[in-house]
Hints:
By secondary structure, this protein is an alpha+beta fold. The protein has one domain (about 1-275): Nitrilase/N-carbamoyl-D-aminoacid amidohydrolase, CATH 3.60.110.10. The chain is about 25% helix and about 30% strand. A hairpin with a 2-residue loop joins strand 6 and strand 7. Helix 1 runs parallel beside helix 2 and helix 4 runs parallel beside helix 5. The longest helix is centred in the middle third of the chain and has 22 residues, at about 185-205.
Amino acid sequence: xxxxxxxxxxxxxxxxxxxxxxxxxxxxxxxxxxxxxxxxxxxxxxxxxxxxxxxxxxxxxxxxxxxxxxxxxxxxxxxxxxxxxxxxxxxxxxxxxxxxxxxxxxxxxxxxxxxxxxxxxxxxxxxxxxxxxxxxxxxxxxxxxxxxxxxxxxxxxxxxxxxxxxxxxxxxxxxxxxxxxxxxxxxxxxxxxxxxxxxxxxxxxxxxxxxxxxxxxxxxxxxxxxxxxxxxxxxxxxxxxxxxxxxxxxxxxxxxxxxxxxxxxxxxxxxxxxxxxxxxxxxxxxxxxxxxxxxxxxx
Length: 299
């Protein structure tokens, strides 16, 4: 089966309303070109507020379903497409998640994925805001297939991609907000970008699944005058199940359109049977935080 997908990469437009209007315009253009799957970047409704720890930022969160859910549900229904959105979820008073919300082609809620791996780095204070997800690595069934939706920091963990594949995901999808420290040297920035791309391409190859990664783009200043802000590096991409690049963006606002052949997973798994040859009897150590080496006898 051939599937046209669109990734909407853009800088923060200044407000929730402006971001949503930009996204709505791009979804209209993408679906006019045949896109049936729309992937949005991480926390697309707002500036990346996790650069600092501010209690007032919790006011940005919404119950799901809520106003933003209704907005994207209506777009999915209007354009008969699946939308993978990324919202700041208020689950109840004082409990918040970084949540991917998937709307089916009829506008109905297809499912949620709550970000499992929560980073804490300079400029990325996500542990202050987000409770780790509790829905597991479960693909979301839609009218176009089973989507293995993960979020940003999850993309560095092969365990997450593998578990989605083992549960029957037909695509791996990563809404993302990753960027450079502007004070880093250019060579270091390029190493980071290459590593980010390589780890995700490796998930495609080892699981024989297409990967769609949609990243933010543009400079977002920090509210702190002594901090440099973040240069979100864009470079959203779609690759096939052998890691081949189908479409990729640069460092500007761009709406990618890519045609994906979902039938290639079966073909590739027949000639590269990675799932068949897994030594599931020997992987018990993956459940441990760290494996200490046994002490050598001195006798």
